[in-house]
Amino acid sequence: MVRAQTSHPLDPLSAAEISVAVATVRAAGATPEVRDSMRFIEVTLLEPVKSVVALADAYFFPPFQPSLLPKTKGGPVIPSKLPPRQARLVVYNKRSNETSIWIVELSEVHAATRGGHHRGKAISSKVVPDVQPPMDAVEYAECEAVVKDFPPFREAMKRRGIEDMDLVMVDAWCAGYHSDADAPSRRLAKPLIFCRTESDCPMENGYARPVEGIHVLVDMQNMVVIEFEDRKLIPLPPADPLRNYTPGETRGGVDRSDVKPLQIIQPEGPSFRVNGHFVQWQKWNFRIGFTPREGLVIYSVAYIDGSRGRRPVAHRLSFVEMVVPYGDPNEPHYRKNAFDAGEDGLGKNAHSLKKGCDCLGYIKYFDAHFTNFTGGVETIENCVCLHEEDHGILWKHQDWRSGLAEVRRSRRLTVSFICTVANYEYGFFWHFYQDGKIEAEVKLTGILSLGALQPGETRKYGTTIAPGLYAPVHQHFFVARMDMAVDCKPGETFNQVVEVNVKVEEPGKNNVHNNAFYAEEELLRSELQAIRDCNPLSARHWIVRNTRNVNRTGQLTGFKIVPGSNCLPLAGSEAKFLRRAPFLKHNLWVTPYARDEMYPGGEFPNQNPRVGEGLATWVKQNRSLEEADIVLWYVFGITHIPRLEDWPVMPVDRIGFTLMPHGFFNCSPAVDVPPSTCDVEIKENGIAVKPIQNGLLAKL
Domain named Copper amine oxidase N2-terminal: which ranges (predicted)? Predict the structure, then answer.
């Protein structure tokens, strides 16, 4: 069969496709003024309907599995090509302050006729009223320049002893929505100000000297300061000698000298195989995607289960939103409640990862392509890291009678990316295990967002970490959206969700020894019933089951979501940030799949005046979940009470959850993992090398 496309329907847009999509939209502008005013917020793949994905995976791309398609009388009718890929563009008009959404069809022309160039066709466009799209790095840089050049601001800094504007850092935070003054009729930013002490030291920790008492409001459309007030003269904190985090003498300290090298090597190469964006490893296979908003996306997750073949687990996994509310009611900290995905974009703020630093071992990297504000294409090289890790013992047993022991080491496949949003770093990880588990993990690090104190002042809403310097209490919340497909082909609706709670048996004839407890299941039949919270006291968890597939004991096959540590917002019910983020009020939400239900706070949370937009509104339809195409929305968070040990840079905090097979397999899938060779010492170029896992070695 002639392959009509070189890109799978779920592959991220290439740099060429982004360029064509931008050029197509720009050419469709009605006037030169409209075209010149276009600013490109996002250009992403418009993901096709699931039937197109099934067709592609059946006949055009790996895994080449015809059984994904529904059976038809007389056999399947196989088309000669797939539908053209489409791009979805969010465009901001800087002149009119309007936001529009465009759909562009991308078609590939044969090299013999047009030199292999792409062409595009505008399919639709619509203006979305009363919204503000995410901010862009270009706007942040322009905002900083405008504020630093504003005479009243320079005078206010002079009052604080600062005349060198090269020392000043202006972080342009989105305004959020606190009153009608923040309505999206204007594109607003309320910057936070910081000041370094040495202009010739680019790696100095400038966040160590917050500038408080200055109120600035910037019109980001016209890039002018529209409100300014020097409200209170709060002295700049003195330069903390412990503020910097660079190596050794550059920070004014000495690094440890007793850390010996440790190298991870795989002399036979990795156990994974990669074909484009299709990954195969230890019976798992899936596709890797990437978007400017979510960052890493995992598609078409399936497990090869012997004679039962390729068994789907999930259609799409990603982190769709995160919210960081601060707990200090004082200015400016009360308005620090960033929606880092919806207001900025996790993918747009991703890093280029360096081998041997962020990831170790034999690494496969994936690049990411984005549009910049003016429509050019930018590439983050080595943006997504794929590699294997040793993960300790997978299982072990020693027979005390014979003295014989069996032990297996665990290896996991990790897919990850890391982004920086202002002062914080976030690492997002999906780990795949040999026992059939999938673990979602977020690692938090970076620098605290600080406040300044008056001499002798303390704040109960934070921790004093240096003279004149304190770190407010705050929380970090993340939302994982999981479009599940447990034993379901694309488009099938045979999943349901049950909640499991452990109950203590009542004293009586069934519990004469008062030791009995049992797991009780409850089917979550509708969306409103499925608004749930974690409960560690009852070991609460949830199972996504296939209603028509059973294991060898007759139980329905399933995958369960096992919570890790978690929390709920520590704020009153009328807190302003909860107006835009009511989804934070509960840990689990369940909806039937709907193609346009992607983001729990709605697509445009920036300055959003509408109450409860998104997930909290969708579930009011109270749709049936008894047999459906299930989407899980898991909300998990961490409460950060800063410590002195979090300064000047925070060691990593980890939070997450696990998707674990529950009756999905007939026995443990880890039983066939081969023994390790940990006790065998190999000589390699005169260096002792001791394996820590089959094929994965630690050179000491």
Answer: 8-97
